[in-house]
Amino acid sequence: MATTEATELLDDARGVLPEVVALRREMHRHPELGLELPRTQQTIVAALDGLGLEVRTGSSVSSVVADLEGGRSGRDGRTVLLRADMDALPMPEDTGLDFASEVDGAMHACGHDSHVAMLIGAARVLASRRDALPGRVRFMFQPGEEGFHGARSMIEEGVLERPNVDGVFALHVSPNLPSGSVSTRPGPALASADILEIVVTGQGGHASTPYLANDPMPVAAEIVQALQVFATRRINTFDPIVITITKIRAGTTNNVIPEQVKMLGTLRAVSESSRKIALAGIKRLTTGIAAAHEMRAEFAVTPGYPPTINDKDFAGFVARVAVDLLGERSYAEMPAPIMGAEDFSYVLRERPGAMAFLGVCPPGQQPMRAHSCHSNRMTIDEDALAAGVALHCAIALEYLS
Ligand SMILES: [Zn+2]
Ligand SMILES: [Zn+2]
Predict the structure, then answer these.
(1) Which has more confidence, 217 or 75?
(2) Which ligand minimizes its atom distance to the CA of 91?
């Protein structure tokens, strides 16, 4: 991308910034959870009105898909998909902002309000340049990213078809990166996230006579320890996993040995192969340790999102576009994957593409000390959203040309 083109695009993005910020604040005030987001859906449809896009709403979830047909598409023009997630988190907000959440127990603490606003800003800018657009841009607004598999529902509804989508891109804000900076990486960018449930069943009894019972407590503790040993000793250091046991429930009082211990936890992996090895290992260890103590353990997995794997070439393309647009100093490759998870992973399983991060560290704060996504005090530098709008546009324009 030539320097003049980059400057023009950034100017256009700054031109729509006031609308982008206003829209973001409107959504921030009215967060919605899960797969049914009627108010957010309506806001998006209204904001796209008059841009000349073909807009469709989802039938199984409250999604919005909007297509921009370029003036130079022709029959062979490619289609690029840009995605924004729309949902908030079930948590209270403690930012003290004058546009803080007005919904009890819900907060846009993952920045999805700004994702939607940036994508609408990009739709505005790209629509104003449609005559020069040699292909199609599909805008994907998806509910249910925070654990509800919204992207998977949209794939089932055909978001990657009619016409076939060739390349895909998503941008996620992070207060822990310098404002206006971009980062991504080829290969694994985020982890899978599976829910683990372990139930150890022994024999209850009197706390003073454990030999007459079979106490599941120390066995559960042994399993927790063994899982940590397993994670570091049996898994390739360069294809890492995280196992965290987050909840242990058992017992009622000081003089009773309970019959059962129930544990809950999470498994994170950055490849399908280490995910598979880890799940088999966790099952082997839990059932094996329990059996060694003459008791029973049951292990159940609720599969979560798969690992988010960026296409190598597409990630390189995003890096080049970001450098051309924002300058060398505004791009840094992610040193390692993030152990959080994303359901854009489903989209990246189907089509080549990449997910990138946009720094939104609030002014006057240190990125590593800023309140992160999912914090009740998470805030962003709204000025950085102009860089995000411009990056969406630049990815689309460069990919299609
Ligand atoms: Zn989140
Ligand atoms: Zn998120």
Answers:
(1) 217
(2) 1
